[in-house]
Amino acid sequence: MRFADDGRFDAMSINVYNPATGDIVGEIPSGTAADVDRAVATARAALPGWAATDPLERAAVVGRIGAGIASRTEELAALITAEMGAPISLSRTAQIQFPVAVAQSFAALAETFAWTEELGTSLIVREPIGVVGAITPWNFPLQQIVSKLAPALVAGDTVVWKPSEIAPLTARVLLEVALEAGLPAGVLNVVYGTGEVVGEAISAHPGIDMISFTGSTRAGRRIGAVAAATVKRVALELGGKGANVIISGADLDVAVPTGVAMAFTNGGQVCGSWPRLLVPFELQDEIVARAVAVAEGYTVGDPLQETTMIGPMASEEHREKVHGYIERGIADGARLVFGGTGRPFEKGAYVRPTIFADVDPASAIAQDEIFGPVLTIIPYRDLDEAVTIANGTAYGLTSGVFGPDEPARAVARRIRAGQVDVNGGHWNPLAPFGGYGQSGNGREFGRYGLEEFLEVKSIQLG
Fold it and tell me: What distance in Å separates the CA atoms of residue 69 and residue 174, rounded to the nearest whole number?
């Protein structure tokens, strides 16, 4: 098992900053293409032994990894809050409990998964795809790698992983947990560094059989283009611009607070958020008033405080991007009803959580992935127009619908997104997650997520 800071990497260092204070909270090596070469060689050497291990034994290791993560909740939560600014309460729950649930679900799935099946005179065999290059973002640094690592390990693959250089501090803890869980040396390898160097090298490497990437659509395009030269499989979970459609007759006491939460949680730095709230024209004023009242209860501040609900953006660079979109929304004529420009504090990468009403669905704030706590309220006149607006971006990752069951389910079927929640339906770790359009391709979680990391072979029997 290779650690990126154990002296075997030929690199200068990259500082890791606390976005709430601007202080340096860690340091990692800035890896090189040569480091990727060594990690890939290690992963390829470990592949035959791991691939030959019984799937139930591999699954047991993944289950122990999940338990190990849970046992180090406080340590991991503190690291995530320090490196990317998530409120500590969110770090303990969504940032930690989610990957634990994912690991447990894949561990259990191995027992019932059809590793082989007969189809007429053929034997269908599912085999490891090989060495997986995993490239993960900063917004959910632990969840995103476990969502790739758990199915890859159950499938029998080995992994070369590049965590985000903005939020890399949980990587060492995860590697320690994996080692303690009994994962053999060389099966999981990490190379710290930038996307331009390490990510590029992983994407292009002929010794890597698959790339699993979560991040921006811009970066996903580049990874797909580079990986095409070696015709490797590429699974991309990219940006989103989810719509939350409220239908007349919806329970506004549930729909509006849920909609605000889905726009503001993790500071809006969630690819599966719903930053667009689509409302009947005649209900806009009531829903705006309700949304503002809910937003006023969101405490912005020190992410280490238990009462904080929105911390800083993950970096000063990202704060400037989000703030620029707030300025753009005002300049383009959207009606500012909450928040706005300016720093809420003198120090830290904070923005004001913001709500716009009467938003033009073609405007920049309604089309672009802002990735911040900015909610755009868009009125519609009938359900056909609502569906048109919901489907009117380049993205198609998640959306929500609130209303009477029959019309709500009908609208959900018409929305072109990989996951649509109806009346606050709960997340299911066995259901597939992934996007339409420029939100990417491939699926994560459950049987569909496991199949992404497997090759399918037909053995014709005589």
Answer: 7
